[in-house]
Amino acid sequence: MKKIIFFSLLALSSGIAPAIAQKAAPAVPPRVFGVVTLEKGALSTNRLGTLMHNQQSVATQLTGIAKEVCQKEGCWMKIGVAKRDDFDVLVKVKDHAFVLPQNITGRQVLVNGTLTQKTLSVAEQKHYLEDAGASREEIAKVTAPKQVYEMQAAGVAIQ
Hints:
Number of strands: 7
Low-confidence stretches: 1-22
Radius of gyration: 22 Å
Largest sheet: 5 strands, mixed, barrel
Oligomer: single chain
Shape: globular
């Protein structure tokens, strides 16, 4: 009898129990800042053209990768599709209602808010580059205004 118990415990400790424990582990919930409705149907940033067609602004939910984050106050981030810059969105925290973690670059995010198109002046572009910790050489390359998508975020969920 002792041998049966011993071999049973040995079998459980050699890999069967960890496999069972891994299956039972619950999914990690996203970290939420502000007001976010966690539902399916969020649009990827590569659908911006379709979403903004003939509209000045639209309330929506976007999903993308955090590409840059304000390193001074955590008050903005740039999200988009990995390895593509043509679908980036500048996400600003509405009324500075919350602060974004500064270490979320590369993480999947979900943003609730109002999306608009606007022109960023040279001064604004340089300001954002400074906040992101860009080099002086990179900042000096900015010489013309730029059309961007901007979202005033009411809430952000980070995976």
